[in-house]
Design a protein that fits this description.
The protein contains 14 helices and 21 strands. It is an alpha/beta fold and 448 residues long. It folds into two domains: 156 residues, 3-Layer(aba) Sandwich (Rossmann fold); 288 residues, L-fucose Isomerase, Chain A, domain 2, CATH 3.40.275. Helix 5 packs across helix 14.
Amino acid sequence: MIKAAFVGFGEVNTPIDIIIGKCKAAEENLRKEGLDLISVYPVTDDYEEKDIKKAVDALTGKDFDLLICCVAGWIPTHAVVKVTEHFREKPMVLWGLCGWVEGDRLVTTADQAGTTALRKTFSDLGYTFKYVYDVVGIPSKTKTVYNYAVAASAAKKLRFAKAGMAGYRDMNLYGTLYDGGSLKREIGPEIETFEMLEIEQRYQKITDEEKQTVIDRAMSKWNFLKPANPESLKKAAGYYLAVNAICKERGYKAISLKDVDGMKKLLGFPPAPIFMLLADEENLCTIPENDSLGSVTQLIVKALTGQCAFYLEFYEFFTDRVLAGVPDYVPAEATLDGVTVMPAAFGELSEGILNVSKAKPGKLTLCRLTYDDGLYCMHMVTGEGITPRKWEEAGWTQPAPQLPGLEIMMDDVEKFAQNVMCQHYIVSYCDNTEVISNLCDILGIEII
């Protein structure tokens, strides 16, 4: 559960029962959303500052992801700042509650007098915060507060996240490169590279019995349109076990492999089924071609949404939509009817196990982290994914497979195209722009 500190403020001359009642209702609503709270209220501007000391003592040394400053009525600025300054490194929510209607009149405790006195002060002090205010007569903005808490928790997770990468710069691409120092400083994840030789060395030690266990336990779930070469199944199982062992030993939450110039060229095996097994059986974020910032984008989206954060790449632009698909695999979570596979070969590459599952349609959020002239930016757009027309990529053995993909309807394809940052974008279902924007705000990432 996401941990948050909840401090409820109200002026010493306001009826204490009103302040307590408003704070308690806000606290209970946040708990219903799923927050694990350390709560202190009421905190007033009493002359001896006993309430301020009580709040600081209650929170000092505690582990929490953000500080929620709940303003239930007018409160002099100093009383709040004397608490927040002890936790200035934490993301904060400045949340003003509101009045209520009794009969024919509005009753207020001047909540927004308190928040408007504080908003610029918080900004001047350099706090990372979100300003939220409730409105009389409409539901409280509990969900808005919760969504910021999700982003704060994700930012904390990213600070110590690790991704693994076998090889580097597949196909000598530029868009998949990254700057390790700034990535660690600004966002947090560490990308650790290891040699493909290590995968091969581990693979050679895996027994046929171990491979068969994977085939029986995991790959038997797949729907095969045509029987696959038994040796291909064994290779997929063996390389999956080899890579997974590395991921577990080193605590990787995401993995990328050198695809075209690595697994396919040097080992003669397209890695699609390896990625499928890692994603579906181990809950890892997976992306091919040493896509560094694609992998980090996956970590971001998964931390915020809990989804698998799969990748799609672009094949065609139309006036009202884009055709996005993958020439290898999608995780089971993103499929409409489960995982469907078939043996197939592309161009001069050897035959592999190709995922031809139907991608699940629906409301989508596409995003991509990029590094632009010293600054990190997030390009983000929403769209509606629909089942694509019959299409194929030239080069596949005929009859060509229908690759996993979606036609994604967009409000402004031209604007998206003029800002597109890479061939790979990370996809999640539903409109997740609010939580992604919150995280970008916390981490100082510009949104495009």
